[in-house]
Amino acid sequence: MSLILVTGMPGVGKTTIMCKVGDELAKRNVPIAGFYTEEVRDPRAGGDRVGFDVVTFTGQRAALARLSSNTSTKAPTVGRYAVCVEEFERLAIPALGSRNSGAIATNGVLLLDEIGRMEFKSRSFGASMDAIVKEVSTGKLRFVATIPLKSSGMEVIERLKRIAGCQIFHVKPSNRDEMYGAVRDAVLRLVSSQ
């Protein structure tokens, strides 16, 4: 078993779980690579959400998306957000590529929050995900990711779900506290199994 997927509605706590898992692995000196997404809020606009950033587990940050009304480019959109493909790729693709370093490949974990429609506006992200699916399916990579609850039509996610031994955790408001413990324990078993 080398794959754990965490799903649930937006805002339910998937990112919080992934960040806590990343912290737990770092405390145990387990090498990690990847990134998580974080909402960007504008305090001048009453704290309204104005976009999303991608943040690596080493603390580097770049724009993933901004309100399309705030951008003048012809960027691809998802809902009311324009995806900042170049900024995203500049940070996220190298973070995914670092899974090929010796430490991650032998005893580490790739953490990814999230595999979503915004991220797939990047062709490079799609190509990286294809490579990740192959590595996970052959047991060469331990992978923990969040996926949207409504992921129909997202072929890469369907391929991941079909990998033997895939564990899927469904986070809800009613179970989010205990779900962190369940995901953490599953990740620690994943790390100790190699």
TrEMBL record:
Keywords of the record: ATP-binding, Hydrolase, Nucleotide-binding
Protein name: AAA+ ATPase domain-containing protein
SUPFAM superfamilies in alphabetical order: P-loop containing nucleoside triphosphate hydrolases (SSF52540)
Recorded GO MF terms: ATP binding; ribonucleoside triphosphate phosphatase activity
InterPro entries in the cross-refs: Nuc-triphosphatase_THEP1, P-loop_NTPase
Regions crossing the membrane: none
Family annotation (PANTHER family): CANCER-RELATED NUCLEOSIDE-TRIPHOSPHATASE
Domain of life: Eukaryota
